[in-house]
């Protein structure tokens, strides 16, 4: 194969494009196809094909055919396009290439195609060749005809994979039939485009791309790259399919026809496409993408501003948090575009940022893995406490938080003005710098100028005052002023001259030093310092200058002349006077001489001597007149010396660091070593506060210029007033030691200097160190000289300046953190001079404007002195502005403003007081509503009760309580109660989730099961059961919301009437019993009595009256001794004070009285004749008995349901129990066993109230911890088994401590009196004891101690208090029984009506007895009327037994506690009884009750009751039958003695005997005595007073039987008598 | 007496429980009641009420509209304990049990003023209060309460008007209720309580969450 041919082949391969794999396995098939093709082609191609076939086989494995000659390709491509442009075949492409990238696919396709095409190529070789140079426009036609064979081959090759051989054929045929004019090339028509999408191509990702490319590119520039070769092919493929469709006759038609149909109906539009560029463009418009490039500095800074780097200026800037540069740039760019203001950028052109908050080290101590390490780390060391004694002056007040003051010390840097390492040049440089500084300072002050100006001003002033026209003042003052001015001028001039001279000399010195330095540099041939002095000459206007100069001189001269003249005048005056004197003296002398001349000879010696010692015989010399020339000369000389010559340019020295330092390698060795030495040195500073080191700076190397920059700020948290602040300068040389160079004492800053306002100050220091160095360094404290000969020696000491600032820090809200001024000790300063403001009035004085002003006035500050200007300004402002600075400090200085009323006035306000008391929940005011707006509307009496209570706290009040003992008890109770209440008030405000949220508990299996069972339950069961009502919390109720529902069902065994067995047996008309009226004849009381009544005759007509809170309801009247009412009575309930809170409801003491009355009708007809025409009867009611149920019981029980024994008085005149009747009537025979009447009741409240929760408070205990745990465990176990059974192990005693319950049980002696009553009858004794116990008044704990807290008092406390609830009674009774030798237990269980309560169980010989301790009654175990309904646990003196039997009714359980299967005992073998000591006293001591007191009480009660009855009958006259009363009074002790039994008959007989002609109805009431109120209530509830028969008489007798220990049994006999006529 | 000046001031509140947003629930009704301090007493009007059941509107807002009127007058001597309206919303759950859907409370506006509907629709006393329900104490509780239709509830809805004891509860937000108030006061200024001049255009109250009907 020649190369050309090979090339050709390769090209063809290139263009043969398939979607197929180059699969070798398919070669067989391919070859088969090829063979077929060949057969066909043989016709056209002839023998060439054979050759080609071979070549194909040979070249098959040729690699690297991809790198093609582009030329040929370009040429051949257009021609080749046609055949290749078939649509990809779906099945083929789907399998292999879906996930390949386009390029890869291309390559593979190329390879595959190449291998396959090779064979075909041979056949086609002749065909493609001539086509190469055809233009693209022609290609279509060309393809149609010319390339037919090759296309066929390719087609078959393509379709190898599609397994549709037939299709190949079909396609061939299609192609053959295809000879139509083609679709214009290059552009796909709409149809094409549509087809492209609708035709079932394999959804290859690249297709669309190809298409887009095809669209984008015209045929003109199509194939430029390998990858793009396919594009036109696809396009053509589309064309092809179109053609195929148009064909319409082929088998394929139906497939394509679908497309066609769609094409007809749908409007087709080319898909919208936006090129990437367009999209980017649009995005660019919409989106803002901040660039990442760095923002140029000028954008970030305000115009024309240079970036300012605070750090370089020596200010402290914390480390910025690290942010990637790009992010920062993005942010900056964003900020700049979005927020054009530059508020985000700092002076340095960077985004403002706080210092990095991340600490470089963790603040948490490192976690140590090894345990022993931890131990060593955490080991504490004992250090004896050292009491640190503060000296008081430094101590900040105790109230102040320590360390709240802060001193900021900013150490910016250090400059050495001399250092041992200074070279000579350095010395000079330092000198020069110093001089220059001086120069600068002077120039800034410019004193000379100031003085010159002043001089001018003064001169002007003199001129002005000399002008007579303008001085209307008196000549005297003017002269005086002029004189003053003149003297001032003189002084000022002198000052000015000196200043000017100084300036000049300074300048000269500077120049001189600079010259020296220059010469030194030249001499040593190197430069050490960058210092460079430039003298700038400022040109001056020569003429003006000269004139000014001259004028100045002239002025001066004239002044001087004047001065001299004055002086001369003065002197002349002096001279003249002196001369006069002298002349006089001379005259005298002459006269003397004359005289002497007369006696000259005698006194010649004396004469000679005389003139010498003579005073002043000298002739005064007349003063010389001043010579102007001389003066002028002097002035000019001086001016020349001190002043700039006129016309001479002004010299302004400028020192710069612009000079270059000679590098090391050009220096001599000594200098190099000096520099080395300098480099090795570093310096740091220690900060000492009050002589204690508090911090130190970093060690910084000494620069070549002997400057050290620190730039550190130390925040000293202090709480002592700073006494001294010291900086210690330390120098380190290499790695050797450090030496203390010097100490710098910093002044303590003024209180006005706070951070931010403090200027940097330079403080000089020096040390007396002697250092000699072996190099160029001059050393310190060592003489050296600049001269070569060593003359003119200098000794310099190490010295320098620290630039620093000390200031007080400001707190968060701008308050400076300065210790209060009072802490400072100002005393020592007073000794100083007062010239200096600070030293005279102290630093603190600076804040006191008045002091300062005073000082300024005293020291005559020059107000014009610019140095004083700010001070004067300040003083002016301060003194004029009336700013009052208080001399004390107040924390809330504005509090006064807000106190609109003084405290006293506030306290006087009644309203305020009321509000306060209410918010404190004081009981009297807790529910006070609508506190009036004005004080005047609040009556003083509102507080009276409260105040009285407060006063009476310790005073025992005897008025309310008749008996003093009760009063003390009541007081004591009150106190206990208050303490308990206070305790609970706190607990009340402590909420649990359950208090706020009602949430169903998670049901356990049994409940769930029950619920499931319920689902199957009937919706309306035939026998409905009572469902629990929803409970209501009592807080949001008001009056009338709560009702008490009393359902009275029936009663049993009511006493029946008995005909009065009076002496006058014959029934009178008027007094005949209405019911008896029908009876044939009244009979005596006899068992046959019932026989007298005909069938259905009524023995009694009972009705029930319920009274509660003085509201009375009654039922209808039923008949017979076993009536059935079945009535519901509704009584409203009012809470005390309208307070419906739980605590309030708990303490409601009211009782519900259920009274049973007999309705008796009396015939009141006066005249017998009228009997036929009318009935006149009077209804009377006779009290039969009552049931009393405390409200608290109802409240806690929610409902009371049961049969109760009616409390029937022992004597009920006119009635008797008809046992026989009951039996006959066939009622339950069991009931007849027990005597008494019964009533069945159901009581509840509507709505149901939630009883208060018991206080959740864990009480402390003195019990053993183990025991307590055991109790908890025991209780938990019991509660798990029988949640409804009461289990009590620990109780709370009166002092609020938890006590184990068995400690309460201990044999205690009953009163001896009771024991001796029935010495031989233990049963009677027991009953008596029980009666005694029952006589102790009952008071529920909830009433006495608000809140549901059951406090157990010991028996002695109980007897002292004489009040308690069931537990106390039970405990006492049990203890008595124990002491009587009985086996007794405390029974905790449920009873009606009390609910959870305590009874006492005793074991008699064979049976058990259950005692109700509150009533004193006892019941047999099997008594159905026993109020005890369930038994939870038994408590003995040494153990607790929990009932684990199936039933808990006392009827059905076994009380044998020894059986562990029935009773779970607390102490068992595993936990033996530890022998707990009892809390009860050893022995009870009983005081005999004072009988006289009892008698007295008895009289008082009687009197009060009588008064009450009269009060209750306001409309009627109440007559008292004294005779009857006395009879009753005699009878009552009998009742007491017999305990109300078996006395009735005797009593009746006696009564009858005495009061025969009265119809008598009455009964004795028996009660324990606690207070008067219950007695009154009881009498009231009987309704005796309700009789309104006109001639009724009353009898009332009270008897009090005293039992030991002030236990009183009260009997009240009330009776009404109606005289029979 | 009358000459001496008033001894009580009166606060008349009327308005309505307008609508609610409870995205997840439908068919809700609401109860309202007032909680006030001891010095307050209602003199006229209904202190509590229970609304009809409302269904979600069919539009996008899905508002539950009650338009349930409130009209009550209080008298008081002391602004302490200013009345709060307590709302509790109930509705059926999946099983048809009535469960609580939210509690909320808000003070009656202090300043007198009426709900004005002007062009810009500004409501003087429009209050949108977030409603919440107490959460179950545990997941299991949550499930069982859901299952049995006995969600945790406050023992008393008035609890939400007080601060005491709330720390023991956890609540979850449920939705919002919008209330409109018109407030008239009498004699407040005479008694020295100045509730300020009525602000002419400020929209008071918490801004309603986005998406609420305005």
From TrEMBL, chain A:
PANTHER family referenced in this protein's UniProt entry, alphabetically: CENTROSOMAL PROTEIN-RELATED, COILED-COIL AND C2 DOMAIN-CONTAINING PROTEIN 2A
Span of domain C2: 1026-1204
Ranges of compositional bias, category Basic and acidic residues: 101-117, 149-158, 210-222
Membrane-spanning segments: none
Keyword annotations: Coiled coil
Protein name: Coiled-coil and C2 domain-containing protein 2A
Top-level taxon of the source organism: Eukaryota
Coiled coil, from the record: 441-502
Region (Disordered): 16-248, 586-625, 1060-1092
Compositional bias (Basic residues): 27-41, 586-597
Pfam family, one: CEP76_C
Compositionally biased region (Polar residues): 1062-1073
Automatic annotation (TrEMBL), chain B:
One protein family per Pfam: B9-C2
Top-level division of the source organism's lineage: Eukaryota
Entry-linked PROSITE patterns: C2_B9 (PS51381)
Main localization, broad class: cytoplasm
Subcellular location: Cytoplasm, Cytoskeleton, Cilium basal body
Region described as Disordered: 192-214
Keyword Cytoplasm part of the UniProt annotation: yes
Alphabetized UniProt keyword annotations: Cell projection, Cilium biogenesis/degradation, Cytoplasm, Cytoskeleton
Subunit structure: Part of the tectonic-like complex (also named B9 complex).
Function per UniProt: Component of the tectonic-like complex, a complex localized at the transition zone of primary cilia and acting as a barrier that prevents diffusion of transmembrane proteins between the cilia and plasma membranes. Required for ciliogenesis and sonic hedgehog/SHH signaling.
Homology family: Belongs to the B9D family.
Protein name stated in the entry: B9 domain-containing protein 1
Organism: Ceratotherium simum simum
Name of the gene: LOC101396643
